[in-house]
Amino acid sequence: MKTRKLGRNGPEVSALGLGCMGMSFGYTTAQDDTESLATLARALELGVTFWDTAEIYGPHTNEQLLGGFLKGRRDQVFLATKFGFVIEPGMQDVRRGGVDGSPANVRAAVEGSLKRLGTDHIDLYYQHRVDPNVPIEDTVGAMADLVKAGKVRYLGLSEAGAETIRRAHAVHPITALQSEYSLWTRDPEENGVLAVCRELGIGFVPYSPLGRGFLTGAIQSPEDFEADDWRRTNPRFQGENFAKNLALVEQIKSLAAGKAVTPGQLALAWVLAQDEHIVPIPGTKRRKYLEENVGAVDVTLSDDELTLIEAIVPPSAVAGARYAADAMQLVDH
Questions:
Q1: What is the pTM assigned to this prediction?
Q2: Are 216 and 263 in contact (CB under 8 A)?
Q3: Confidence (pLDDT) at 286
Q4: Crossing angle, helix 61-69 and helix 103-117, to 10 degrees?
Q5: How far apart are CA 125 and CA 143, in angstroms?
Q6: DSSP secondary-structure letter at 196?
Q7: CB-CB contact of 283 with 20 (8 Å)
Q8: CA gap 155, 147 in Å, rounded
Q9: Is 126 a catalytic residue?
Q10: Tens digits of per-residue pLDDT, 261-292?
């Protein structure tokens, strides 16, 4: 596996990471821990050692899954997790509990994650969503204390706006910014986030680089989703939006076929081509998809191909918001 530097002064990590959320959360309540654990083992074999989780995934069960697997293997993985959502017992939808970026929650949350992950340190600790009611300086100041204490090695933010990133970086170096970015989510190009990351030497970690699976070409109908799959509530997967976006994917499939790669590999190669400090973390709980994703690292796109892809899927082409309105309110601008 090739490696990339996470920002100008950050650590070397595998050029492709592994998003672990779907093993425990989000797309279905039906878990397959046996396959998930096999996927984690295969990731190590393939050199995919930059793993991403969060306390909200489950909640808590994804960190527990990884923690159990990593016993005796902790030094083989660059481990990232996230904090910041309010998690209450019995909450039906943990994403609706709001956010808490208070220093007290920073200190409490890290202890929970360390215990569940079975480790004495977290390699990269993200604030999952910016808390508009707590100055970012206070949140990052508390996170910086975790670095001093040796509980955390590097700090990150997720879905933070350009000005917030600047303010946070002035308190303590931010190593990585994690936000949604793919051929069909180009917001970081348009809102100044990618530009400020390049300016400050911050690594950029795209989540959902495959458009929540849509860019693989495997999803042909909303009925392809499980009944409890949250994508059914996502504007891009509904009604006319779905049909319009599917037409875009058909063009990507055609281009990929001409290059003898899969649509997903083409989509990941496009993300990787955008900057040398971009490290996407496609999520999967299945070995076959992990292996397919890894193949994208060796796909080279020429300038002409990049221009053609841009013409097929310009930022304005995708129909529908990337989240429902309530979830978009949690995105810092």
A1: 0.94
A2: yes
A3: 96
A4: 40
A5: 8
A6: H
A7: yes
A8: 8
A9: no
A10: 999 999 999 999 999 999 999 999 999 999 99
